[in-house]
Write a structure and sequence with these properties.
heterodimer; A: mainly beta; four-stranded antiparallel beta sheet; B: mainly beta; 0% helix; 55% strand
Chain lengths: 114, 113
């Protein structure tokens, strides 16, 4: 079974631009979560989607948004990029059944904002 | 809300020696607890999880952890480390009814020959 895939793996943007990152979950997984990882703030939860609905949201400004498609693939968008948005963005997918299911992480997208 | 404190930011250890990584959590409700490992330029891999039941949890690659509710701790141990265990380790917590993980700051383990 293929793992979680994220595209692109590396991205360089300039301040003020906007960026879209993509995440394809493991086949059959309906929950997709996004995390931001930086040296200063560590790993922080951005949001979680299940069946195309945002179920949970972290404490990030409105410039960070996401969506999930009917095939469970997810995208996150960051508008008006700031230098502080440089980070590794990790996506995780899970079955999200009635009991806990493990979340599987992708390799991440490394975003550099210049 | 839940939070996690990893008490050691860096742990150097010699090959074949034991290692313990300390994790304390804070929560007003019952939680699930996890340890993840991150190798350079990779995502996170689950080492082990505590959901309920036995407080001693065994994971992959010879790691184990003990859940202590009275001390709100979930320390990770391995009796004998290998060079390949060099990585960053994260303790994480989630509520019982959500998929949001709250992570500690991470512990960098460096194994030397």
């Amino acid at each position: 079974k293929a793992g979680v895939t994220q595209t692109p793996r590396y991205l360089i943007k300039t301040r003020g631009q906007q960026v879209t990152l993509s995440c394809s979950p493991i086949s059959g997984h309906r929950s997709v979560s996004w995390y931001q990882q930086t040296p200063g703030q560590g790993l922080q939860f951005l949001f979680e989607y299940f069946s195309e609905t945002q179920r949970n949201k972290g404490n990030f400004p409105g410039r960070f948004s996401g969506r999930q498609f009917s095939n469970s693939r997810s995208e996150m968008n960051v508008s008006t990029l700031e230098l502080g948005d440089s980070a590794l963005y990790l996506c995780a997918s899970g079955l999200a059944g009635p009991s806990y299911n493990e979340q599987f992480f992708g390799p991440g997208t490394r975003l550099t904002v210049l | 809300a839940q939070s996690v404190t990893q008490l050691d930011s860096q742990v150097p250890v010699f090959e074949e020696a034991p290692v313990e990584l300390r994790c304390n959590y804070s929560s007003s409700v019952s939680v699930y607890l996890f340890w993840y490992v991150q190798y350079p330029n990779q995502g996170l891999q689950l080492l082990l999880k505590y959901l309920s039941g036995s407080t001693l949890v065994k994971g992959i690659n010879g790691f184990e952890a003990e859940f202590n509710k009275s001390q709100t701790s979930f320390h990770l141990r391995k009796p004998s480390v290998h060079i390949s265990d060099t990585a960053e380790y994260f303790c994480a917590v989630s509520g019982l009814n959500d998929y949001k993980l709250s992570f500690g700051a991470g512990t960098t383990v460096t194994v030397r020959a």
